[in-house]
Amino acid sequence: MGDDISNDKAPSVWSKVSLHWYHWAVLALSLILTFGAWYVTDQQVQQKTQARFEFQSNQIINLVRERMEKYEEALWAGVAALHMQSKPSDRSSWKEFAESLKVEERYPGINGVGVIHYVPTAKLENYLAWQRKELPAYKIHPPHEYKEYWPISYIEPQSNNAKAVGLDMAHEKNRYTAAQRSRDRKEAQITGPITLVQDSKQTPGFLFYVPWFSNNRVPLEYGDDSGFLGLVYAPFIMSNLMDGVLYNENRLIHFDIFDGDTKLYSELNIKSESFDQSPVFSKTVEMDIYGRNWEFQVQTSLLFREQFGSSQPTMILIGGILIDGLLFLIFLILSRSNKRAIEYANIVTRELKNKHKDLEDVQHNLQRRNLELEEANSELDQFAFVASHDLKAPLRGISQLVGWIEEDTKGYLTSDTENFFFLLKNRVQRLESLLDDLLEYSRIGRKEGSLQKVDIKSKVNEIFDLFNPRDDVSFTLDCNIKEITTMITPLEQIIRNLISNSFKHNDKKICKIHIKIQKLDDYYLFSFTDNGPGIPVEHRRRVFDLFHTLKPRDEVEGSGLGLSIIKKILDRYGSDYEISSEDGSGCLFTFTWPLDDEIKRII
To answer: What are the Histidine kinase domain coordinates in residue numbering (predicted)?
Structure first.
């Protein structure tokens, strides 16, 4: 017979293992909790890194604007220097002024500073004669069709800009248009993209103009009747300007600059240090720069990803999935153990029906089967212990982690995110409560303690006091019984759950609870009365079902297992029970409990 049992196709036990719907409900709730924690944490990380990106990108753009304003101040200083001279400025006077500016030291990125005289056709001969006194080879170039001239007269340092001396701004559209606009608006302007004659690499650049008007009489060599004398200007090669503004080293942000369709400056290429081909963030910003619309295309670098990237959401997701897997494994093993116990019981029954052996053999087999059942129950107890300790520990860790995240992100949270955190903590607490109640339900009939004498009146008062009742709770106890001998643990579970339900479901200003205990001929009779909303007739059977609540889960505390636990205990002890309500207000729950001698027989 032993061979038949051991070879009773143990793999078939696994094939028959199936989880109940409430197991799947717990797993689903745990998954929702996991993905909820991951989503909230991921959103907070995104918000923080987005704020960092906005700060860094705005800082760089503002730095470019501030540097241009600094250059503008230097050009207006040139206008002031021209006004201070009592006669038309000459080349040596301008050189002295430019050297006092210390252009290369104070204004990195600027190629020089110079003067453009406005020369009407009528004054061209006087202007050329005046310039050739100091520079005999001086000439205006290249030729053009306009009847006015905007030649560069002086530029310092001249050694680096010799090709620019005599260059007429009217020969090219971008130079000419910006010069006229600066004169007409009487304000600083820059040209559209151009290539400077002094730039051997032929890279994009621009000219920066400020207008110069006469305070007194207009000279014979230059100027017009409106008092306009010319421009003070500075040439810029864009790459030199950016190198002067900021170095592309250990930067969190890279960018390109466009003027229309022309790319003025570029860092968004694989040659740039820490260039990220798949940036975390990117954006486009348009900005008016002295009459031109510059477009900044900004994106994060690899250094930004390293400093502000966070694996916290991923770790939460992985940890949650591992916990879900542990839950599934525990439920599966518990279900397998239960199936094995049932299989053993079926084998015993079949053997008793189909085999005729003497009483000694039958007793021997029964003893062996009982030992096997005890081993199966011991296995169930072991896994119940794992569920109550090893499973709840990660849940407490998640709850603590959520609390830390909430503290770290305090002040950054939106109202929606705060609500997500509230729901997250609520779901953790509910899952812990659900595990406790499931374990309590599974242990009914197996972990009941031992018979003991107890003062039932004192015990009921003690249970009630453990709830820390509020001032708006009225509790009365009618009991003329002193001591009873019973299994106190299951009876205490029933009393505790009934008092808890009266608290949770009461909607009155004063919660009234009345308990009456009396001894009849064949049993003890317990009556619990409250003034809550009562239970409609159509729900009085369903309330004993697992996880059944009369209200939506988010509107009531608890797991929906309280009355299921009560029903299982009362069925275990062969007790009768009934729920009734008067006019839909208040609820009366009565049940019988075995007398002292009867309880000994049952156990």
So the answer is: 386-597
